[in-house]
Design a protein that fits this description.
The complex is a heterodimer of chains A (332) and B (334). Chain A is mainly alpha-helical and 332 residues long. Chain A contains 15 helices and 4 strands. Chain A has a two-stranded antiparallel ribbon with strand order 1-4. Chain A has a two-stranded antiparallel sheet with strand order 2-3. In chain A, α3 (44-61) packs parallel to α5 and α3 (44-61) crosses α11 (203-229). Chain A is globular and about 65 Å long. With 334 residues, chain B is of the alpha/beta class. The longest helix of chain B is centred in the last third of the chain and has 20 residues, at 300-319. The N and C termini of chain B lie far apart (58 Å). Classes of the chains: A mainly alpha (332), B alpha/beta (334). Chain A binds chain B through residues 173, 176-177, 180-185, 187-188, 190-192, 194-203, 209, 325-326, 329-330, 332, and chain B through 92, 94, 113-116, 118-119, 123-126, 130-135, 139, 142-144, 146, 148-153, 156-157, 159, 162, 166, 189, 191-192, 202, 205-206, 208-209.
Chain lengths: 332, 334
């Protein structure tokens, strides 16, 4: 029983930690692009990588202050969004998907390549760029604190606090935008671009604004991740993270303000709980070692998440917050 | 703006009398015109000149000259594949022609994108209705309003800048929905409306933008007869409010009933123009719809005579190998 409680506590920590924030911010960005505007951005992780490396390179390589690094990361994300949007947003939706997925993989390979080593440190990546930020914490960051049965370092707590504030501010921004006429145009573009054009709206500009805004959220997510881990390594930014963020968004409910946030927390909770729980069952001998060894657990937990998503799509296709009537309209 | 007012408060009626007066104006202005293709109209809102559009080897549209009378209902008819919808697409910027110029109120619309055309006051509806399914009926309507301050990204974040305008737009939208008998459905998703209701919604949404020219692509297609009557009434109301209406339709009864002027297209060209009563007697139109020889069945004697004529001509051609003679076209008619 105590073991189970412990597994729950560990999973709870994971659902509140910086990784959950990372996915939440990525998914908020995808929600703006895919949930509201209908844009298929399959390379959200590229924006995150630019955000993370924006800080890392500025601070570690160029010796700039931390906050300038934040601005560099955001600016890089905006530029990437413009570069991706300019040629593709006048075309059919699939072209943006192709361009973004290729860019995400291409940028990661570029950042880890030998020729980029002088700037990005290649596969080893950069570290020691977050001291300015951690130093801002109002409490002692070298001490460990016990919260809800798990132990957090002061630095972890500070990153999580600032991260969740970012998530809340981001959600408020999305909430304010989506109840305004601007959000109405965006949702209409998702439904039918041509109808919106025929009513005198410049669809291209709205799509570009959505792409840039979503990219900025992606960059913020990457920054939280880089600051949370204390290092920026290109291979941390695998494009699988984009699809986990999509999973979180669909889990929580697309086109809902809180969908991506709650979705990421649940995703991280399930991943961690499955991990700890399965290891526990194996060590107790409840699951025989022949059937499942503890080395398989890391993979099996993703299988469980996949199964969970399938069940969700069958029994609750709208996600946790979605409106079933709304989702079912397309089935007509 | 005009849409706020009851139908007969329209700008087009100089006398400002009963609702029937404006219709007389448009019809009267067109009464004395010759029934010719490309005839100049007394007060043209839309002028098309030499517009062609080809898709590979197929010439979809090839219009030499066309003028659309302001304040009237112009029906655009023609067999399937005549290029009516393509012409609509060209006029509203959804497609760009290979050659030609076209203008609205004297302003050229060439190289304009659809939203720019719409902002000038030329709105269209689509053959396949484009209701925005996952928005409510009221949100659909509000989207149609022009010049909304809250549609700019940064002003959207400050509700104070757009709340008053939004309220005014909502009132206007509710008035229109009431007119189109959709007000009870304002909070339903547009996706659950019936086909006919979607047509009504699309027309009402177009009116939210206070257009000057309304282009309706098959407004009656797939609508039950009872609803057709109400749609017809709404189209007539547009004219009474002083709008110029261009519509594509296949139902000749509808066309005869409401149009002031009818333009007939076939194989990309305009083959006839005139008031609706002139069209059914026009030989070119009848030929386009039914084929050239539909009313003259060949008798055996006729067939023999045609055959003999052709044989005689072939014989003549074979005898005369040297070119230069000009009478070879003689006698080949029906």
């Amino acid at each position: 029983m105590a073991d189970l409680l412990n597994a729950l506590a560990v999973a709870g920590k994971s659902a509140l930690g910086f990784q959950a924030i990372f996915f939440a911010l990525l998914a908020i960005g995808i929600n703006v692009q895919f949930g509201y505007a209908g844009l298929l951005n399959f390379g959200q992780i590229a924006f995150a990588m630019l955000g993370g490396f924006g800080i890392a390179i500025s601070v570690s390589k160029w010796g700039l202050p931390f906050w300038v690094g934040v601005l560099v990361g955001l600016a890089a994300a905006v530029v990437l969004a413009l570069l991706l949007g300019l040629p593709t947003l006048r075309l059919r939706a699939d072209y943006l998907a192709i361009a973004t997925i290729a860019t995400a993989e291409g940028l990661r390979l570029l950042f880890r390549s030998v020729s980029a080593t002088p700037v990005t440190n290649g596969t080893r990546g950069l570290s020691a760029f977050n001291t300015d930020f951690i130093a801002l914490a109002p409490w002692n960051t070298s001490q460990r604190y016990s919260i809800l049965g798990t132990s957090w370092s002061g630095g972890e707590l500070w990153v999580a606090l600032v991260g969740w504030i970012l998530v809340i501010l981001g959600s408020l921004l999305v909430f304010a935008l989506m109840r305004s006429p601007w959000g109405r145009v965006l949702k209409s573009i998702r439904e039918d671009e041509d109808a919106v054009r025929a009513l005198g709206k410049n669809v291209y500009v709205y799509k570009m604004q959505a792409l840039v805004l979503g990219g900025i959220f992606g960059a913020l997510g990457g920054m939280v991740y880089a600051v949370g881990t204390g290092s920026a390594v290109p291979d941390q930014y695998q494009n699988a993270n984009t699809f986990l963020a999509y999973a979180a968004l669909i889990l929580g409910g697309a086109a809902r303000v809180l969908g991506p946030v709650i979705g990421s927390m649940i995703l991280l909770f399930i991943l961690q709980f499955a991990d700890t729980g399965l290891r526990l069952l194996i060590s107790n001998g409840i699951i025989p070692e022949d059937l499942l060894s503890s080395t398989d657990v890391a993979q099996i937990r993703f299988v469980l998440v996949g199964l969970g998503l399938m069940l969700l799509l069958i029994f609750r296709p709208q996600g946790i917050f979605g409106d079933r009537r709304e989702v079912m309209l397309d089935a007509r | 703006m005009p849409a706020d007012l009851p139908p007969h408060g329209a700008t087009a009626s100089g006398a400002g009398t009963t609702g029937a007066a404006p219709q007389r104006l448009a019809q009267a202005a067109l009464r004395d015109l010759p029934w010719e293709v490309g005839v100049p109209k007394p007060d043209a809102a839309v002028v098309v000149d030499g517009v062609t559009r080809t898709f590979g080897g197929l010439t979809a549209v090839s219009v030499d000259h066309l003028e659309i009378q302001r304040g009237g209902i112009t029906g655009l008819i023609g067999p399937n594949g005549a290029g009516k919808t393509t012409l609509f697409n060209l006029l509203t910027g959804f497609d760009q022609p290979d050659t030609g110029t076209w203008s609205f109120n004297g302003q050229s619309l060439g190289k304009m994108s659809p939203h720019q055309v719409a902002r000038l006051g030329v709105v269209r509806t689509f053959q396949l209705t484009k209701a925005l399914s996952r928005l409510t009926v009221l949100q659909n309507m509000l989207l149609g309003a022009q010049g909304q301050r809250g549609e700019s990204f940064f002003r959207a974040l400050v509700p104070g800048t757009w709340r008053a305008q939004e309220k005014a737009n909502t009132e206007k939208a509710m008035d229109l929905l009431q007119r189109f008998k959709l007000d009870a459905k304002k909070d339903d998703f547009a996706g659950i409306l019936s086909g006919g209701q979607r047509k009504l919604l699309e027309m009402a949404r177009a009116l939210m933008s206070d257009p000057q020219v309304v282009m309706l692509d098959e407004p009656m297609a797939g609508v039950n007869p009872a609803l057709t009557q109400s749609l017809l009434g709404h189209v007539k109301d547009l004219r009474e409010e002083g709008m110029t209406v261009i519509f594509v339709e296949h139902d000749m009864d509808v066309v005869r009933d409401i149009s002031d002027w009818v333009v007939v297209m076939s194989a990309g060209k305009i083959i006839a123009e005139g008031p609706p009563e002139s069209i059914s007697q026009n030989q070119a139109v009848v030929d386009a719809y039914l084929g050239a020889h539909h009313d003259a069945p060949l008798t055996v004697e006729d067939e023999d005579r045609v055959l003999a004529e052709v044989e005689a001509e072939i014989a003549r051609e074979e005898h005369r190998d040297t070119p230069g003679s000009a009478d070879s076209s003689k006698g080949t008619g029906r």
